[in-house]
UniProtKB/TrEMBL annotation, chain A:
Native species: Nyctibius grandis
Protein name: Ubiquinone biosynthesis protein
Domain named COQ9 C-terminal: residues: 188-258
Domain Ubiquinone biosynthesis protein COQ9 HTH: 71-101
Protein family per UniProt: Belongs to the COQ9 family.
The keyword Plastid belongs to this UniProt entry's keyword annotation: no
Biological classification of the source: Eukaryota, Metazoa, Chordata, Craniata, Vertebrata
One family name in Pfam for this protein: COQ9_N
Cellular localisation: Mitochondrion
Gene Ontology cellular component terms for the protein in this record: mitochondrial inner membrane
UniProt KW Transmembrane keyword: no
Keyword terms: Lipid-binding, Mitochondrion, Transit peptide, Ubiquinone biosynthesis
Assembly and oligomerization: Homodimer. Heterodimer; two heterodimers of COQ7:COQ9 come together on the same side of the lipid pseudo-bilayer and form a curved tetramer with a hydrophobic surface suitable for membrane interaction. These two tetramers assemble into a soluble octamer with a pseudo-bilayer of lipids captured within. Interacts with COQ7; this interaction allows ubiquinone (CoQ) isoprene intermediates presentation to COQ7 and facilitates the COQ7-mediated hydroxylase step.
Gene: Coq9
Transmembrane segment boundaries: none
Automatic annotation (TrEMBL), chain B:
Gene responsible for this protein: Coq5
Record's subunit section: Component of a multi-subunit COQ enzyme complex, composed of at least COQ3, COQ4, COQ5, COQ6, COQ7 and COQ9. Interacts with PYURF; the interaction is direct, stabilizes COQ5 protein and associates PYURF with COQ enzyme complex.
One Pfam family per UniProt: Ubie_methyltran
Protein name per Swiss-Prot or TrEMBL: COQ5 protein
Record-level GO BP terms: methylation
Taxonomy, superkingdom: Eukaryota
Amino acid sequence: LRCQLSPPQRALRTSAVLRRVSEEQKEPLASSSQQQFDSHPTDPRPEQEPQGPRPSYTGQGGQESEDYESEEQLQHRILTAALEFVPEHGWTAEAIAEGAKTLGLSVAAAGMFHSDGSELVLHFVSQCNTKLSELLEQEQKQVQLGEAEKKPTEQFLRDAVEARLRMLIPYIEKWPQALSILLLPHNIPASLNLLTSMIDDIWHYAGDQSTDFNWYTRRAVLTGVYNTTELVMMQDSSPDFEDTWRFLENRVADAVNMGNTANQVQSTGEAVVQGLMGAAVTVSN
Amino acid sequence: AAALCPCRAVLARRGGALRALCGSVRGLAAGPEAHFGFQNVTEAERREKIYQVFENVAKKYDVMNDSMTLGIHRVWKDILVHKMNPSPGTLLLDVAGGTGDIAFRFINYVRSIRERQLQRKLKHHQNLSWQEIFESYQADKSKSLGDSQVVVCDINKEMLKVGKQKAQHLGYSEGLSWVLGDAEELPFDDDKFDVYTIAFGIRNVTRIDLALQEAYRVLKPGGRFLCLEFSHVSNPLLSRLYDLYSFQVIPVLGEVIAGDWKSYQYLVESIRRFPPQEELKAMIEDAGFFKVDYQNLNSGIVAIHSGFKL
C-alpha cells in the first residue's frame, strides 16, 4: 500500500516550489497553494511561452498546467543567469551553479546539466542568433516602411557579421574555451546546426533569392568569412577591434568579387569552348 | 504472528463481509504487512529485525563489503560522488550513511576542487603585492573545504559508532557531523540541504515512499536527490551468474568472515525484493522530484537514481 498523492495535488506542491523561485524575482505574492489555480493574467515573466499544457514526458500530472513553468524554461532561466558569471568562471558547471544560486536555487541544480558546460555555450550561441535575427528583422521593417535605405549586399553582410561578432565582446576572454567546447564531437551536430541557421538567416535578410547551385556557394563563402573573422577577433588587441572589422571588410569584398570573378570565368570559359568548337569545325572541313 | 491467528480464524468462518473489518482490526493489532527478505512480517517486526541485522554486522560491515563485491563497491561510490560533482559550499545529507563512505569521498572531492580553485586564483594574482598574496593565503587556508559540510544520518547507533571511529582514524574532522535519525522522519528542518544521498540504504527502509517524501522536504529548491542501490539485472546470462553468486557465495562469506549467515541471507533476499529501476523512478517522481533518471552500473547490478526538487 503505497501512499500515492493524486497527481493534481502533487503538481500543486511542486509548482509551489517553481512558483516560489519566480516569486523571488517579482514582488512576493502571498503564496498560498490555492492561488495556483487562479490564473495570473498579467504575468510579466519574459521567458514564458504561449501557454500550453506542460509537456508530460515524465508522466507527471499535467492538467492544470497553464501557470507552471516547464523544466526546460527553468533550465533556460538558469543558463541565462549563469552567463553573468562566465567572465569569472569560464564556460563551466561552476558558472551554472552560480547562476542557479542567483535564482534562489541550490548549487546542486547545476547537476541538471552536463559537467563540461556544453549547454551553457550552446544556449548563449542560440541566444545570440535569436538577437541577430530580431535585429535584421527590425532593419528590414524599417526599409519596408521607407525609414531607411536598402543597403548594398556587401555593406549588409559586413554589418550583419559585425553585429553578431560584437555580441561576443563581453565574453571575449573566455571565447576560445567556448570554441573548443563547440568542437567537441558530441556537440558538433548542435553547433553546426546553429552556425548554418545563422548564416541562412543573414542571407535570407540580404535578399538572397537564389534557388540554384549558388545557394550552397553563398553559404559556404559566408561561413568561411564568419569563422575566419571570429578567429581574428580572438587575437585582436586593437581599440574596439578595428583590425577585425577591417579584416572583415576585406574578406567580404573578396567574397563579392569572387562571385563576379566566377561569372567572368564562366563566360570566358564559354567563349573558349566556342572558339575551340569553331576551330574543330573548321579543321574538319 | 500470534496476534494474527484469531483474526484469520474469524475470516475463515464469516467470509467476505467481515474481511474488511478484520483487515483493519488486524492492522491495528499487529501492523501492516511488510517483508523481511523472503519472509512476510509486519512493519514493526521488519524494523526491529533490520536494526538487529545492522547491529550485528556493524563492526565487519566494511570488510564484508569488500569481500562480497570484490572491492567494486568503492568504484560505485566513487562514481556516485563524481556524478554529484559537488562544488565547494555544498551541504550534503548522507542518509543511512553509517560508516561514512560517501561522506569521506565527498570531503576528499570538495577539498581537491577547492585546491584547484585556489591554484587558479593564484595564477591571476600576477600584480599583487607580497602583503596581499600573504593575506590571501591566510584567508584561504582556513577554508580548505570552502564551507562545504556533510551530515551523516543513520538509524543505527552501532553503525554511527563505527563511522565515527573510522573518521577519527582517517583524520576527518572538519565539516562532518553525525546524527541519529530515521529516514522516514528526518530530524531536520525544511529546505536545508543541497544534496541528499542514500547509498545502499533505501532498501532497508520500510516505507520507501515516506523516506522519499522526507528527502523532498529537507532539500532546498533546486536540490538533488541521489540514490545508489542494488537493482535488477536484465541480461539473463548475467542474471543467472549473479543469482548463483548471491545465494551460494555471499551467505557463506558472511558466516566465515562475520560469523553471521542469516544477516547476509537477508541482504541477498532484500536485493531481490527491491523494486526495479523503472518502478523506483516512478516512486521518486511521485514524491515530487523532477528530471528523474537512472544510470545502470555493471548492467544493472547497481543503479544510481537522480532527481531534482524543482
